[in-house]
């Protein structure tokens, strides 16, 4: 019996030892994986294949693996406009790349400025003597703008093209809040500050309609002009003014109608498109799948560019990006967390920068967050560092607030800026509770004790205090604009009042100094700092997340096979509706989340590329709100 017990103990010890060894090997393997950078692939001779299955943004938001795993899906892929332009420009001068292939079937578009930046890069690629081939099942405004620069634009026989133009509808919750007796206590300054109208009205006010109509008209004119320059034979008037006649002329065949209107050059399947490219760049020797051709994907190509990046030997110009809604915390990248951005700027004070370029692509946000970023920028200016601002799609409200320290402001004709005004919203539920027999009562030492009372309503004293705070913030905003632009406060008030301006109008009014992209702003900063032609550009906080891309690739195949998603014209409209629904839910939830005084341009949400920034609809939030709305 004693012998058997000893043998048993020996076996248990061996088992425990083996378990420990395997555990150590597991952690060693895990450490090795995390210590090594994932290999995105190799660069091959042939075509540069850009399968743009997502949106173009200013700054890519990192993927949260935990959230993705819990949701069992990946967020919509985002492509930084700067990376796409860099990839295309590098391919134009690289002997390994003979052509450019863009699959736009899953393309969700981007802001007007970003679309122009990528379209200009495509034109430079074609000017270099290399062909461009695009393919899509369904083309929409943004994909058509890119396809206009193609040597051959292909559309699937079951697909087509649709031109909608900018604009759309915002949802107004005034009637809904009245139905449930919820009070939206609004505090605002500005005739055109229509950001609060969705919470109080059932439709657009006339000043808001006038402002939005002018912006839509300008953006529409710019889009048509850009398309005509690239594709002069396209019959845009027929496509937009007589849709039924246009389709009837092709017997309601959407693909043939697109061809007849000059929007595309050829009709064919994805396989036929690939075979046509293979005659130019050669067949893919790695696979015998039909329709493949020798190519390099975006990820290995951009990784190869990063590996061989020449930073230069001259002075350093810092570029900080303010993208997305401005908040007070550490949010981002992809969202403008003020503390995070201020930290990047303060760290850069020790980097011996010769100039600072602030890239703004934001509709604004909280006043306190905007001021935190402005003060951090001002610390560079106080240190004698020239500050230049480059505006992207939006630099409105708080986005303009952070631009006020600049000595030079660059924008594009399609940039939306201004919206100089502030507002605040406090919802209170005294009416809703009273409907169910719930009231609020108590004692207070002062009129402000226990205020703001979201359950019992706001007292006149607290209303006066909050309105004074909003008016004080607006006065501060006007003084910053007046000092920055060298005008009087009264003139700043005339340009303000919450009105949104397009880049052309803003330039005429003196809110921006000149047209130009980010490269133009960097070049001006280099001249201002006397750096000559040899200088280094340091994008602050622009550290790649290789593990996020690795995680995305690991989940991509499951996401693709599990998604019941189409790419035809109906699917394009459906995606737009999903974006509108998600936007509506976000606006309604924003009302319920008191975030302080806002300098934000909600009008910008109805403009191109602004629907829902690279996010899948928050399904849980939607279900909660739908249950609330439909419950009786």
From TrEMBL:
CDD domains: S49_SppA_67K_type, S49_Sppa_N_C. One of its GO terms (molecular function) is serine-type peptidase activity. The active site is at 193 (proton donor/acceptor), 397 (nucleophile). Residues 125-270, 380-531 form the Peptidase S49 domain. InterPro entries: ClpP/crotonase-like_dom_sf, Pept_S49_pIV, Pept_S49_SppA, Peptidase_S49, S49_SppA_67K_type_N, S49_SppA_C. It holds the Pfam family Peptidase_S49. Gene3D superfamilies: 2-enoyl-CoA Hydratase, Chain A, domain 1 (3.90.226.10), peptide peptidase (sppa) like domain (3.40.1750.10). It comes from the Bacteria. Keywords: Hydrolase, Membrane, Protease, Serine protease. GO terms for cellular component: membrane. SUPFAM superfamilies: ClpP/crotonase. It is found in: Membrane. GO terms for biological process: signal peptide processing. Belongs to the peptidase S49 family. This is Serine protease. It comes from Aurantiacibacter luteus.
């Amino acid at each position: 019996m004693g012998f058997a017990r000893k043998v048993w103990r020996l076996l248990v010890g061996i088992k425990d030892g083996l378990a420990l060894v395997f555990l150590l090997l597991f952690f060693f393997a895990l450490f090795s994986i995390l210590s090594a950078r994932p290999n995105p692939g190799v660069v091959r001779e042939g075509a540069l294949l850009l399968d743009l299955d997502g949106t173009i943004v200013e700054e890519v938001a990192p993927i949260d693996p935990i959230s993705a795993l819990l949701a069992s899906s990946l967020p919509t892929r985002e492509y930084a406009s700067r990376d796409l332009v860099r990839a295309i420009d590098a391919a134009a001068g690289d002997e390994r790349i003979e052509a450019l292939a863009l699959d736009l079937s899953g393309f969700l578009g981007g802001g007007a400025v970003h679309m122009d930046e990528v379209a200009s890069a495509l034109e430079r690629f074609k000017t270099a003597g290399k062909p461009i081939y695009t393919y899509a099942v369904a083309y929409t405004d943004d994909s058509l703008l890119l396809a206009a620069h193609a040597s051959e634009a292909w559309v699937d026989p079951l697909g087509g093209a649709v031109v909608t133009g900018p604009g759309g509808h915002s949802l107004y919750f005034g009637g809904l809040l009245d139905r449930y007796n919820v009070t939206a206590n609004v505090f605002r300054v500005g005739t055109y500050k229509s950001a609060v109208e969705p919470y109080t009205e059932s439709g657009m006010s006339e000043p808001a309609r006038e402002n939005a109509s002018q912006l839509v008209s300008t953006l529409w004119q710019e889009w048509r002009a850009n398309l005509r320059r690239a594709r002069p034979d396209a019959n845009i008037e027929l496509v937009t003014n007589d849709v039924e006649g246009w389709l009837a002329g092709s017997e309601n065949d959407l693909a043939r109608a697109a061809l007849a209107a000059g929007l595309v050059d050829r009709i064919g399947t994805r396989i036929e498109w690939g075979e046509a490219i293979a005659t130019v760049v050669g067949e893919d020797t790695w696979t015998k799948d039909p329709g493949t051709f020798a190519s390099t994907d975006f990820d290995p190509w951009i990784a190869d560019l990063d590996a061989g990046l020449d930073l230069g030997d001259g002075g350093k110009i810092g570029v900080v990006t303010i993208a997305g809604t401005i908040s007070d915390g550490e949010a981002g990248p992809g969202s403008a967390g003020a503390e995070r951005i201020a930290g990047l700027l303060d760290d850069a004070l020790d980097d011996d920068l010769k100039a600072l370029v602030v890239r703004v692509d934001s509709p604004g946000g909280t006043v306190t967050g905007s001021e935190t970023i402005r003060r951090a920028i001002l610390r560079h200016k106080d240190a004698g560092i020239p500050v230049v601002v480059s505006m992207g799609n939006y630099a409105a409200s708080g986005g303009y607030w952070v631009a006020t320290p600049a000595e030079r402001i660059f924008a594009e004709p399609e940039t939306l800026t201004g919206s100089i005004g502030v507002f605040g919203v406090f919802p209170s539920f005294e009416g809703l509770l009273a409907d169910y027999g719930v009231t609020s009562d108590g004692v207070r030492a002062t009129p402000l004790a226990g205020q703001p009372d979201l359950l019992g309503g706001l007292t006149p004293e607290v209303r006066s205090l909050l309105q004074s705070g909003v008016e004080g913030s607006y006065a501060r905003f006007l003084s910053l604009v007046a000092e920055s632009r060298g005008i009087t406060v009264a003139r700043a008030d005339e340009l303000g009042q919450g009105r949104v301006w397009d880049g052309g109008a803003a330039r005429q009014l003196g809110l921006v100094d000149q047209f130009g992209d980010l490269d133009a702003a960097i070049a001006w900063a280099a001249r201002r700092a006397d750096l000559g032609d040899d200088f280094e550009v340091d994008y602050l906080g622009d550290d790649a997340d290789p593990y996020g891309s690795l995680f995305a690739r690991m989940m991509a195949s499951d996401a693709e096979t599990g998604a019941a998603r189409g790419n035809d014209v109906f699917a394009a409209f459906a995606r737009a509706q999903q974006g509108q629904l998600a936007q509506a839910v976000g606006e309604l939830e924003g009302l319920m989340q008191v975030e302080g005084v806002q300098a934000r341009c909600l009008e910008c949400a109805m403009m191109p590329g602004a629907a829902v920034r690279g996010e899948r609809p928050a399904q849980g939030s939607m279900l909660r709100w739908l249950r609330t709305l439909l419950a009786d």
